[in-house]
Amino acid sequence: MTISAATFLMFEGRAEEALAFYVSVVPGSEILSINRYGAGGPGPEGSVILATATIAGMPVMASDSFVKHDFSFTPSVSFFLTCSDEAEIEELATALGDGGQFLMPLSNYGFSRRFGWLNDRFGVSWQLNLP
């Protein structure tokens, strides 16, 4: 038996927008496929049944839930990006932080030369590290 793993993100109507944003900001990322609900489907027409992508080469799946939930994303699960230089971490922090909220602003916290943790505008959590 072969098992594979991927991060799965459930949005309430913004899956495609979020993935397009991540692909535009994070190098080595691309949307691989998007399947949408049609007319008469259980979800709103055009919303995402399932999208697949890679974020910095990591497999990611996403969907739009047409059911309202009492939960959303939590910072206890996050994307962790290891950056190669100061310019890259600054660029990612600026882009991902736009419309979001920093939990730990970019700084030297002693365990890394530069580190930051934020929730983006979609509520997804990102840790940015410059070792």
Record keyword descriptors for this entry.
Signal recognition particle alu RNA binding heterodimer, srp9/1, 4-stranded mixed sheet, 131 residues, 2 domains, alpha/beta, 39% strand, 2 helices
SS-derived structural category:
alpha/beta
- How many beta-strand elements? 8
Give the strand line-up of the largest sheet: 1-4-3-2
CATH-assigned fold name of the largest domain: Signal recognition particle alu RNA binding heterodimer, srp9/1
Mean pLDDT metric? 96
Give me the CATH architecture of the largest domain, please.
2-Layer Sandwich
Rg result: 16 Å
Number of structurally distinct domains: 2
Q: Helix segment count?
A: 2
Low-confidence stretches: none
| Main CATH class of the largest domain | Alpha Beta
What sort of overall outline do the alpha carbons produce when their principal axes are compared?
Answer: elongated
Order of helices and strands: EHEEEEHEEE
Describe the structure.
One of its GO terms (biological process) is methylation. Residues 6-128 form the PhnB-like domain. InterPro entries: 3_dmu_93_MTrfase (IPR009725), Glyas_Bleomycin-R_OHBP_Dase (IPR029068), PhnB-like (IPR028973). One of its GO terms (molecular function) is methyltransferase activity. Helix content is 18%, strand content 39%. By secondary structure, the chain is α/β, with parallel strands linked by helices. The strands form 2 sheets. It has a 4-stranded mixed β-sheet with strand order 1-4-3-2, covered by helices on one side. The mean pLDDT is 96.
